[in-house]
Amino acid sequence: MTVRQRRRGAWAGVTLLGMALAGGGSPAAGGDQVARFASRAELVVLSATAVDRRGRPVTNLRRNEFYVREDGRPQAIQHFSEGRESPARVLLLVDASGSMVTTPKSSSPIMAARQLLYALDPNDQIALAGFDHHYFGVVAFTADHAQILRGFSEVRPFGTTALHDALGRAASDLATHGEGRRAVVVMTDGVDTASQESAEAVIARSRALDVPIYAISVVSPIDDPESEQFTGQPRPAAATLGSRLLARYAVMSGGAAFVVSDFAGLKQATDTIVGELKHQYRLGYDPPPGPTGFRRVEVTTTRKGVSVKTRSGYVPQS
Fold this sequence. Notes:
By secondary structure, the protein is α/β, with parallel strands linked by helices. It has 8 helices and 14 strands. It has a 6-stranded mixed beta sheet with strand order 7-6-5-8-9-10, with helices on both faces. Helix 3 crosses helix 8 (263-278). It starts with a helix and ends with a strand.
């Protein structure tokens, strides 16, 4: 059987990740502890991470230390949860396109997965999905972290890259799996060659879903200014544009973006991601009346030297 045939079989057999995330898979370990907000559809829920001046998570903020503003107007925080009140859910999205064949082993997707699994708590849930010109599920959410590593046998570089389409699907899949600390972590070289959707459309949707996106762009050491092997030449235009778009995904959704070319950079990225996810606050408020259309959201804190990351806004339901 050829690689192409195996991959087609994988698409046919495991593209039901979204259904599994919505409840078709095994119950999440500790699922009874997931923080639940009011069921009103209009409630605005924000995932937020507080960091100090050195980028370290701040873990002991209280509700009355947060301020939420919508279009500059203060909003009363009606719902609040913090830290490890519920298991985290991470959807690991892996670029399985042909361009990833040259990825250094020291910063490969499976190495990133190992670092994430090592740092997460045992009851945290992880799902694995891949993409080339299609998005496909591999392992539904599970606390069996070894199952995630075994799932990498289904992720083999082949075909073109539909990065934006895959990020849109991943954010939607994760959003169907209920409230709680959550994030999409994507490993890619950042070059999109086959998406049907635009980056702007996907960014708008992921922001509306309140799904933080963490992006790890994998580059060659000769293209990494932080590497001793850097040639001093600028990266190819497509790769540079890809990294900038991933950084925009991260900023707009409340996540973070990293460029890595070796194990040290990869470990720093995964440590930062897990550190933020472990201390992710959840804030909820009732949106004020007004016209439909994009509303800008800002979250700040009274704690000196601390900044808060969250999605940049939302569009109210009509």
